TrEMBL record:
Gene3D superfamilies: 3.40.50.2300, lambda repressor-like DNA-binding domains (1.10.260.40). Residues 3-50 form the HTH cro/C1-type domain. This is LacI family transcriptional regulator. Keywords: DNA-binding, Repressor, Transcription, Transcription regulation. It comes from the Bacteria. The lineage of its organism: Bacteria, Bacillati, Bacillota, Clostridia, Lachnospirales. The keyword DNA damage does not apply. It comes from Lacrimispora amygdalina. One of its GO terms (molecular function) is transcription cis-regulatory region binding. Residues 2-56 form the HTH lacI-type domain. Signal peptide: none annotated.
Amino acid sequence: MATLKDVAERAGVTVTTVSRVINNRGYISEQTRKKVYEVMKELNYQPNELARSLSMQRTNTIGIIVPHIVHPYFAKLISNLESAAANKGYKILLCNSKEKNEKELEYIQMFKSNRVSGIVLCSRNVDIQEMKNQDIPVITIERNLEAGTVGIQCDNYQGGCLATEHLISCGCKNLLHLSGIKNENMPADARAEGFIAVCEKYGVRHREVMATSTIYNTLDYHEHIRKAIEADPGVDGIFASSDLIAAQTIQICAEMSISIPGQIRLVGFDDVDIARLTTPTITTIRQPVKEMAEWAIEFIQRSLDHEAVPEQFKLPVSLVKRNSS
């Protein structure tokens, strides 16, 4: 059976370097990290996970809580988080809260029991102050959780502005924004702020319609969309706050014999796979999900290495033009 020394000799590095790679301690170049992992695979070397976790007081696991796993945005985010974690030598412990407080509290306790190296939260309900007190890095993505180590967001306001300016440039004069959740304060609300600011700047008629938490939890916006369009038949441009809502808007417009983009031009948000699968394909605001996931894992690693990290980290968005506008 191969030993740590065997791996070091084959890889041409010191035993200390191999140990640092396995334990994610200190700076290791990607080239060295890749070489060590290749040699471990060649020699079929298996680190003693139990001994390592006991010595480090934590496991090589990152806990992740999302409110939905079937939502296209969270599915894409989870996939990118898993890839980013694997590149750093971590495994993920994925939990689906379904927006239920009691489940989230159970998951937090499970993370503590499993001595996770860090936590990525995409749920808005968790009280994480206790985790911070235990020196567990907590990274939030698109959530207003001030007690976290780092809060990662895309530039939602910029996205709202880009979407609205695009619709106006297409000749739209009566805009509808299918926005966030009533009585919920979330970073995505800034999309509506950008929408309103641009409409007022150009003197364009506009209306914002918010969904209920029930609609958000079921992910079924069909009747909500139908009522919003029926309330103002003159609408010629729609900015949907997600590609999921935009896709359902296409379905409702087809049922109502409304042509997209002939009668209504449509812009979504996120740029998930569904935006390329509908007919017409969806013009959307690209949220840099891959980059957000990579930074989340990077900030966990930096925190564990006692390096400085920002409290807030915001990434720019961009417009992706497709056939719905």
